Amino acid sequence: MKSKINSLAIIVLACGFVLGVHAIASAQGRGKGGPPAGVPAGGPPSGTGVGRGISTSSDRSNGRADTGRSTASDRSNGRSDAGLDRAALQRQNSEQANRDLSDHPDMALRLHTTANSLRSGYQAALLANPDLRFGQYVAATRLAANLGDRYPNVTTGAILTGLSNGDSIGRTLQNLGVGKDDAKTAQKTVDHEIKDARRR
Question: I need a surface site. Which of 131, 151, 186, 200 has the fewest CB within 10 A?
Fold first, then answer.
């Protein structure tokens, strides 16, 4: 009887030893930088940047991602779409300004300023009015410089505000107290200045 008990005890101890060794080996494998148990190897999804999953989000979510984006547009009454359009327009106008300054490297100097000043000022103005063209911004800066002494209300900021309200430069100048004839003359002068500044 004792022999049977001893044999059974040996078998139990042997099984326990084998299970213990297996558990230790498994834990060591996970501790060496491998993926956790049950998680397949292979690293992060392909692509780079925050948008790397956008193109496949619809497929992976069985269309729920598209529904979510559509719902966001509907719930915001189109404001989310308008925000994207606004950002795209700002980027396009900013890129056009950079091309203009690159194509006419002496323009800023001829207008008594610097390219960096024009670029940064225009970037700030685009935040308030993404429809603002670079030529309009340059004209506003020159009109303020030419008329500011006689008409203190005529500042670059005031002209830009008028443009963002939908007024023309001529109407804006008149709203700021400039006579109609003086406004026309000032615009012609600035148009010639900008045209000359853009000459290579």
Answer: 200
Token code pair at residue 16: 């326990």
Long-range contacts of 32-40 (CB under 8 A, 24+ apart): none
From 134, 119, 138, select the one nearest 193 (Cα to Cα): 138
Q: Which of 189, 199, 128, 194 is nearest to 157 (CA)?
A: 128
Percent of the chain beyond pLDDT 70? 60
Q: Cβ(95)–Cβ(86) under 8 Å? A: no
SS3 for 178?
coil
The residues, ordered by sequence, that sit 6+ positions from 73 with a Cβ below 8 Å of its Cβ are 80, 81
Its sign, for the CA torsion 68, 70, 74, 79, is: positive
Closest CA to 162 of 144, 147, 175, 153: 175
